[in-house]
TrEMBL record:
Protein name (database record): Heme-copper oxidase subunit III family profile domain-containing protein
Gene Ontology MF annotations: cytochrome-c oxidase activity
Heme-copper oxidase subunit III family profile domain sequence ranges: 35-204
Biological processes annotated in GO: aerobic electron transport chain
Compartments, record wording: Cell membrane; Membrane
Source organism of this protein record: bacterium (Candidatus Blackallbacteria) CG17_big_fil_post_rev_8_21_14_2_50_48_46
Pfam families, alphabetized: COX3 (PF00510)
Similarity comment: Belongs to the cytochrome c oxidase subunit 3 family.
Membrane topology: Multi-pass membrane protein
Transmembrane segments: 34-58, 70-91, 103-120, 141-164, 184-202
Cellular component terms per the entry's GO annotation: plasma membrane
Length: 204
């Protein structure tokens, strides 16, 4: 015989129970289901932008090649190293999260790597703007500035998140799911850049 509580669960499940029944796999994902929804929405959105950029580049090749000549691929390469280093640091933090060792230093380092990326990118923007270039200069420069600034906003958000997590973890233990969600976000930012970087700087 079912007691009253069991009957309520069987015939009137709560919203969270409904979600677990409909999406049982979400419970087992690192970082929780929500961050993975954000992850794929962001990846697919940027993928659409990349396809448009590549298609226009094929139809207006001369403008794109001339624009690429004014870029600074060495700075972009340095920024790639900075982001990947940040990814290693956050992976280290996740690995150590289950041990008694403090992880705040790793989280602060990840956040600072994001701000270093912004600093290097800002210097590159300064060199470009000195030449009178803006969003309206050409279709290449519109997409370059739009895509890199959009990505830069994601880096800035990641930097703020990890500085905050570093501060929080210095006084209390972070939930594993929170840390994993932040790490997934940072890796998403990395993936976007690893496609954006060669597409803008080297693809002819």
């Amino acid at each position: 015989m079912l007691n009253e509580l069991d009957q309520k669960k069987l015939f009137h499940p709560t919203n969270s129970e409904n979600q677990r029944q409909l999406y049982p796999f979400l419970e087992n994902l690192p970082g929780g289901g929500l961050i993975w929804i954000v992850f794929w929405l962001e990846i697919l959105t940027f993928a659409l932008f990349f396809l448009v950029f590549a298609w226009i580049g094929r139809t207006d090749r001369t403008v794109f090649i001339e624009g690429q000549k004014l870029l600074h691929p060495l700075l972009a390469t340095l920024n790639t190293v900075v982001l990947l280093t940040g990814s290693w640091w956050v992976a280290r933090a996740v690995f150590l999260a289950r041990s008694p060792e403090k992880i705040s230093a790793w989280l602060y380092a990840t956040g600072l790597s994001g701000f270093l990326f912004i600093l290097i990118k800002s210097w590159e923007y300064t060199q470009i703007f000195k030449q009178g270039i803006s969003l309206s200069s050409s279709i290449f420069w519109f997409f370059y500035l739009f895509l890199t600034l959009l990505h830069l906003a994601h880096v800035a958000l990641g930097g703020v998140i990890f500085i905050w997590l570093g501060w929080k973890s210095s006084s209390e233990r972070l939930q594993t799911e929170t840390l994993e969600a932040a790490a997934i976000y940072w890796h998403m930012v990395d993936i976007i850049w690893l496609i954006l970087f060669p597409l803008i700087y080297f693809t002819r």
